[in-house]
Amino acid sequence: MSIHKIFTINPGSTSTKIALFEGKKTVYSKNVSHDAAYLAKFDSISSQLPYRKEMIEGLLREDGIDLNGVDAFVGRGGGLLAMEGGTYEIDELVLEHSSKGANGVQHPAMLGPQIANEFAAIYKAKAYVVNPPDVDELQDLARMTGIKGVYRIIHLHALNLKETAIRHAESMGRKYDECNFIVCHIGGGISISAHRNGKMVDGYDIVGGEGPMAPTRCGSVAIADLLNYCKGKDLKEVKQLCTKSGGFVSHMGISDAIELTERAKQGDKYAEVLWNTMIYQIEKCIGSMATVLHGKVDGILLSGGMVYSDDLVMQIKETCNWIAPVTAYPGEFEMEAMAAGAIRVLDGIEEAKKYKGISCFQGFEFEQHS
User: Fold this and answer.
1) Directed axis angle between helix 158-171 and helix 334-346, to 10°?
2) Which of 116, 138, 134 lies closest to 53, judged by CA?
3) Nearest to residue 307, comparing CAs of 148, 197, 167, 191?
4) Which of 7, 112, 137, 268 qualifies as a FRET site for 73, CA 20 to 30 Å off?
5) pLDDT digits (tens, 9 = 90+) for 44-61
6) Going from the N-terminus, what domains does the chain have, and what CATH number goes with each?
7) Is the pLDDT of residue 10 over 70?
8) How many helices (H) and strands (E) are present in the chain, helices listed first?
9) DSSP assignment of 31-67, as one string?
């Protein structure tokens, strides 16, 4: 098989990560910084497209990087409706939904498919998204809630979760679709998921406020308590607790885990309890995913920025090693995961999927006849 050249694009709130791969080898990687005050002048995330593209092109010229010969451009997905995991061709429907945020979530990742498509058109290459945050492979029993007509959906760090699982399976000499894993991404947001035979069959909707607290996220809170908290407050402000102003930010006004743990080491009891509570909630969620897999767990995998903390990893190992071996993969594989997804398609290992533009779950058939 030939060695494919892949260019990956991962837009964040104030930066855009870019990387060039030859096969699985990273030959160029940069973080394009954007001034937050300048970004604030745009009336929508998608209107940032020309600016971000120009910034990327400027840095590539400055660094002497030629994209001629690139086989595929891969953008971090966002704004799409719930879909099964895989590598998807970027077509007009993907562009339409990502540009407007069809799922109701406004996030810079929406720009990923749009920027990738712009470059692919210039260099006559393929354009893909790989395992976007909208991947939803929940099993049926994970769907229903105690409110008729309200179903569970999930938003997780699917790209990194699946890549971590794929890599760990390879390290065991097995395939991802032959294994059962509990996979956790522990960073600014915390995703905890159960993977059975290559499908992410359960997990927590971290955009909706499920799961453990995180540096900027409130996590699960009793509905009655939340309703009391909402009295006299703006709904938009309260909703931000799910993604921006909850967790460490709500308690101590900071989102940096290193700063929090340093305060704890210096005797700040509040910081110590907050840190340990977050870890305790992560462990509880891992336990719940173990029951989803009926206790048949090949490994508990930890990834994300906070996994650089020896204390966090040690606590989770002490609490959860009885379920399955705990393995730490500090940091993330998002850029590598996007390249790997494209390579699997270009090598014929997987087929590129077509985005259908409708949520993969449309309710239970039996309800339609009741």
Assistant:
1) 70
2) 116
3) 191
4) 137
5) 999 999 999 999 999 999
6) 1-133+334-370 (3.30.420.40), 158-331 (3.30.420.40)
7) yes
8) 13, 11
9) EEE--HHHHTTSSSSGGGHHHHHHHHHHHHHHHT---
